[in-house]
Specification:
With 188 residues, this protein is an alpha+beta fold. The chain is built from 2 helices and 4 strands; from the N terminus they run H-E-E-E-E-H. The strands form 2 sheets. A two-stranded antiparallel ribbon has the order 1-2. Strands 3-4 form a two-stranded antiparallel sheet. The chain is rod-shaped and about 90 Å long. 6% of the residues are buried.
Amino acid sequence: MVDRSQLQRMAKDVEALRKRLDEIHLRMEQVDAVLSEHNITAGALKALMAHEDPNNASSHVSIGSGVSLHYKHQGSEEGIALVDLGAGIFGERYWSDAHAITKEREDDIQHLRDELEAQAKQTETNLANVAQAFNTAAEQLQAMAAPPSKETAPLQEQAIPTSEEPPAKPARRGRKRGMFGNDLTLDD
């Protein structure tokens, strides 16, 4: 038997799980955006490394707001890129090293996304179970609190109207009295 306080706790649990699921989905969207960025970066680095003449490659680098800079690499060595090494520290790395770092980060981020997806599935399962338990408990509580219907009540308890009894008249309100007794008011 479930009482009202247990039902309220179950409702709070359902709401908390829904909120948690929303937070997980938001994190997954953020991780997807970062994954997309890493995928684009890895593709650009791979294209630079696969250029016909890697000693003489050029491209345009976006600096934001629709503005890009022309970039040209000339030399006998592989091109160099600035890479965020962590904690706001940047270092120069060859394109192949920058590509390897980017792919490693992308793999780590994909692993994080997979974990978030597993958490989302588990939370959805928990939410479904708690919501089902809540609905079952609410139906039980409602069935216990509901008065018996005419179909389920015994015949002896049901009131059978007779034609001998006059219908009940609605209660009549008395006349509104004025402030000073029986004087007429503007409402009269």
